[in-house]
Structures are given as structure tokens and as C-alpha cells.
Amino acid sequence: MKNNLIRFDWAMKRLLRDKSNYVVLEGFLSTLLGEDLHIVRFLESEANQTEVNDKFNRADMLVEDEQGRLLIIEVQNNHELDYFHRMLYGVSKTISEYINLGDDYDKVKKIYSINIVYFELGQGKDYVYHGKTIFRGLHDPNDVLQLSIRQRERFIGKDAGDIFPEYYVLRVNDFDKIAKTPLDEWIEFFKTGNIDSSATAKGLPEARERLRVDSLSDQDRRAYIHDMEALRYQRSVIKTGWYEGRAEGLKEGRAEGRAEGLAEGEAKGRAEAKAESEKEMALRMREMAKKMKEAGMPVETIAHFTQLALEEIEEL
């Protein structure tokens, strides 16, 4: 039975910053990192927008825990080829912003970049990945560089790499299993928007109660429905425009190729039909790009799906 729960990315923008709802996000973070985490405060996040024309942007949060560590949580729905680079940029920017000019380097905070993505990011068989810096011996790969005794007394961690940022990538759409672990229960929620009645992972029972659509105010409920319709329209524009345009272009190309082949020769007909098909496809991509731009989608996302140049999209 469906719980009729609010999407997690929308809840991040509107609800989870409320101190009364900290328990939900604390539950997820504790489950992922394998320790009992408590949020001290939420810090500013440039992408955590609520305006209508930002509805397609990623949702993210910057959290500080009781140990002073910073946790960047990002949810991204749109496909981005350079997403790994943005993960790196986000961490680097956070490090530079949260150390005061003149402070010693040991004031750099430990950062976790947690990425919940709804598109194919890289290649792999798993649906959860963890990355961290490890210094291995060039001549002996089993030799991992560790902190000195004095450094261990001053810094937390036994390896030099423990000081550096760590990354988590949750490829939600690749989860196709029965939830057997607490983390699986969370990922199932991210993917389906549903929390099974038997789910007991930390934070999920509270999410089941506090993230109900029917618990929203009238204003928030209208905003939520509007944003979900906008996302549905976005997906429809992308899928319909891409698949129909491609299918129609191929169909016309084959038909024109056969007709021209009968009249002027098969080789010449195929070449001209291909050129015409490509021209038709280009026109269709421009039409789709124009609709996507009018819908408020980012230029980079439009370029990815239409293969048009950024300058060409700007001129539409």
C-alpha cells in the first residue's frame, strides 16, 4: 500500500531544515555512515532553491554534525556528464569557505559528499559506492601511508587519507532488489517514494509520519503538486521529443532512401536521405530545445539531451 509520501528531494528543500524534522535526515546519515550522527545546524547551500524557475535544479544541504564535520547532501534528477567534476568542485568550495583567512591548515574540516542521483552515473554493478583518498606505496601497493604517532595524538584517524574528503554515490535507479538492510530501505524510499510498513531503519518511521502529503499546509500542498507536475512534464518533453524525433527521422530516412534509390541509384539515395534525415532531426532537436528552454530547464541539461551547442540554445 502506497504511503503517499513527499519526494525526498522536495522535502530537503522545504521540510528537513525544520529542527523538528532533523530526526529524519539524522536517521539517513547515521545509516549511511554507520555511526550515530546528530545535526548541529544547517549551513547555506547555493542550490537549495525554492523558486518556481529553480524547480529543475538539484536539491542539496550542507550539514554540520556534533564533531564539526561538514556533510554535503545532494539530490540530482537531471543527467549531467560532468557530475563527478561538480562533486569535486562542491567539496573544494566548501573547504575554502569554512576556513578563516590566516587559520592553520589543521582547521580544515572533514567533509563527506553524499550524492543521491537518479540517472546513470558512470559504469558499475553496485548501487552504492564509497570513495576516499588512500596513499599507497609506489613499489608496494600494500603499504598504506599512515599518520605518525604525534599526528595521531592530534588528529582523528590512523591513515593520512582519513583527513581528506570522502564521497558516497547512491545510484537510486540501479536499485532493483528486495530491501534487506537499513540502507536498502532508505534507497527503496528514494526510488519509490514508499516506506514499507516493516521498514525499521533509523529515521524511516519518523519519515513515514512527517513526510505525508496530507500533512502539508494548503500552500505547501499546492506548491508540491505543481512542482511534481513540472517534473513530470520535463520527463515527458525529454522522452517524447527524443524517442519520437529519432524514430520519425529514421523512418523518413529509410523511406526517402528507398525512393531515391529507385530513381537515381541506391547509394546516392541513401546519402541524400541520410542528409535530409539529419536535417529533419536537427530541426526537431531545435524545437524540443525551445520547449525545454521555455519550461525553465538548465541550458546544460538541454544541450545534453539535444546535442545542440550552448550558443545555439541561448539564441532560441
UniProtKB/TrEMBL annotation:
State the coiled-coil residue ranges. Answer: none
Residue ranges, annotated region (Disordered): 253-274
**Domain of life of the source:** Bacteria
* One Pfam family linked to the record: PDDEXK_2
Its recorded name reads: Rpn family recombination-promoting nuclease/putative transposase
